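Predict the holo structure. Ligand: LM2.
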Amino acid sequence: SIEVPEAAAPDVGIELFQLPWTSVAQECETTLAPAGIAWVLLSPAQEHIAADEWWASYQPVSYQLASRLGTRDEFADMVQRCNAAGVAVIADAVINHMTGQSEPGVGYAGAAYAHYDYPDLYAESDFHHCGLTATDDIQLYKNREQVQNCELVNLADLDTASPTVQATIVAYLKDLISLGVSGFRIDAAKHIPATDVEAIVSQLPQGTRIMSEVIRGAGEPITPDEYVTFGEVFEFTYARELTPPLENGVFTDPVLSDDRPQQVSSEAAIVFVDNHDTERGEANVTARDPQLYVIANALMLADDYGTPVLYSGYAFTDRDAGAPTDADGRVLEASCADAIGPTADLADGERTCVQSWPAIRGMLAFRAIAGEVPRMPGVDSGDAYGFEREGRGVIAVNVGDDMQRIEVPTTMPDGAYCDVITGGADAAVDGGCAGREYSISSGIASFDLDPGAAAAIHLGSRR
Ligand code: LM2
Ligand code: CA
């Protein structure tokens, strides 16, 4: 008999896009903790403009925790319940800017504001007026000054170098920490000088997790590398290199985790297949393409580079459409407890619920067993590709239009194994398999894969 190594708790997160706090709490308890997901990334919690589009969340009008996603009490209760379930909470901190509304208005929870005036928070002198472009809007991403001091799509740009602005932001972030939040995504971090982000986050308790969103752009002067001295960064290059081979079948193999010249070091990288912006933009593989989406997420979860963050959103036709709301504009509760996916035909507004897909749960189990050992060189076979995590797990995918056989050398023991992509986290059942079965013989794992199929076996999924 073989010894199954103890399952580690891999550091995998998930973005629950535009999900209300009461539902996030439920997901922590019913789907995220059972799947072994370590942290949840929320949508912004602060009060925002009164508008139906999802992106209203990214236009703060005050730092009250009162939004379409829920009240302060609901937020506090959610953080407690997630923490109790062992799921850390990462809040989305929109601190580069306030609203992009040129006309005065009243926010979702009643706060009055004008473009450069947020009573009790910020006044005109707290904002940049860059004076570098006709409208004060960013025009040239090759110009550092413009990117950081001008306005991103008319959003009133905070003077984040100002000590009073920093103090106001720090007070807001500390308020979230007082409710149990473990860290922050720094929204639009590229638009805030790294020195300013550092000055702000260095005033937070030691150990607060910081994940800066710095979208890498060819030829741009501001790079993610500037933000790694005080935290992690979202590495956009990962998906840009992961997904084209899924469409053209030409895999290049990064054998070592740090063999990715265009990317930050593995410890600093948060990696993803898509997020709420890229699924509406640059991502070429999203939940709209279920087979390739499973393949992409499976490869990411089997990989040895970075900290993966999954993405759980909702189907849409209109890129601006918000999640479904009630008559008061509150986002409706939704549960993924009974979801089974992937499925190609979600109605607009329906949640993708990736955290409940057997394939994703199976790959989280795979990572728990095999995620700590070296990633071995990849094997190509036509449009199929696969690799081993040394002695512990093997993954193989077929991105072509024809059935494909692929043989991956492995030091795992010979025998019959249950596939966790079709069989899920508990793939081995009563001497049989919940999904497909594959075998290892004479140190070769063999897979006959249908077009668009993936397969993964590990020491814990032996039949
Ligand atoms: C981000 N990261 O850096 C967020 O992830 C992204 O979702 C945000 O854009 C952006 N930065 C600002 O926080 C979204 C959305 C935009 C939307 C903004 C502001 O993708 O379309 O802009 O939020 O809500 C919208 C309109 C735009 C308008 C702007 C200001 O689309 O046309 O500009 O509001 O009213 C005049
Ligand atoms: Ca800025």
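The first helix runs from residue 21 to 35. The pocket of LM2 (ligand 1) is lined by residues 55, 58-59, 94, 100-101, 152-155, 187-188, 213, 277 (CB under 6 Å).
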